[in-house]
């Protein structure tokens, strides 16, 4: 990728910044810098309304192909949008999973009928999605899932039974994409299928999981003969693993630059406090802040390298290191934040004793190296897929 900025790109950046300034105001002012990781349960109703505001500005799916309802923005312009969104304090996206994961997957693997059925509602900020991958005993080892689906020929529907866990915002979602075992007796990667399942039905129960931060954005989801129509399967029976892996490839897309701008906002807050309370005078603390700044730049350049090729969901070698790199960096930022705060890190000012932004950051980053594939699993992926080393003995 050419990391330079053309005059046209700079003009586009100004347009995005101006739009954010004009629209992230009034009733939406309280959303600024809210709703990110560890804070995802903040004002979900207003954030859904904000999604419709974005849709009116045609910012949802702006990087999608024109034939799928997007604006066909270049990679450079998409990067600029995500950066300016985060710089302006744009709230955590309620529609991220639909726009960033489901949409590209449907564009690549869905039928024209499926694309026409689901993509417009994502673009309009109307339908919200959650991810039905992890299970108890099948988190980082995703191929070990036990959730099963059988086809009922009388009704023309798939019947799904099982349990998913760590399902972000399941209680706020209209749909869930579910990886389920449709071939009885199959094991590992074989016999899996990719199903789109409506959440508003009697066969689905959602139970919140309370976190260290006091929030409950994660959930357990129980399926008891939950139903979805035959036409809501993406691909063919048995294609689930291929499609699931492509979706995880899309997860390492342009939005990673927006994630890094959120990290920059957090680092800026740490630096501001270090200057205010004198921690910046400590040479060791200054060195740690400099290391954090440098590490964030490395993440940025690797992301630009990831985005240099075709965005088809394939996990390029550059992409295999991203989860391990950002989660380790973010974990260390949480520690740095607490050390900069000093004794204040242990205190809450007054009732109702809610965590400060940096306290919540520290607690939530304890999980960064676990969810989305633990660091141990990430190192195996790097060794086996990127470096071609012998596979770990099973």
From TrEMBL:
Residues 9-125 form the Acyl-CoA dehydrogenase/oxidase N-terminal domain. Residues 130-225 form the Acyl-CoA oxidase/dehydrogenase middle domain. Keywords: FAD, Flavoprotein, Oxidoreductase. Residues 238-386 form the Acyl-CoA dehydrogenase/oxidase C-terminal domain. Its cofactor is FAD. The keyword Oxidoreductase applies. InterPro entries: Acyl-CoA_Oxase/DH_mid-dom (IPR006091), Acyl-CoA_Oxase/DH_mid-dom_sf (IPR046373), AcylCo_DH-like_C (IPR036250), AcylCo_DH/oxidase_C (IPR009075), AcylCoA_DH/ox_N (IPR013786), AcylCoA_DH/ox_N_sf (IPR037069), AcylCoA_DH/oxidase_NM_dom_sf (IPR009100), Mycobact_Acyl-CoA_DH (IPR052161). Gene3D superfamilies: Acyl-CoA dehydrogenase/oxidase, N-terminal domain, Butyryl-CoA Dehydrogenase, subunit A, domain 2, Butyryl-CoA Dehydrogenase, subunit A, domain 3. Belongs to the acyl-CoA dehydrogenase family. This is Acyl-CoA dehydrogenase. It comes from Pseudomonas versuta.
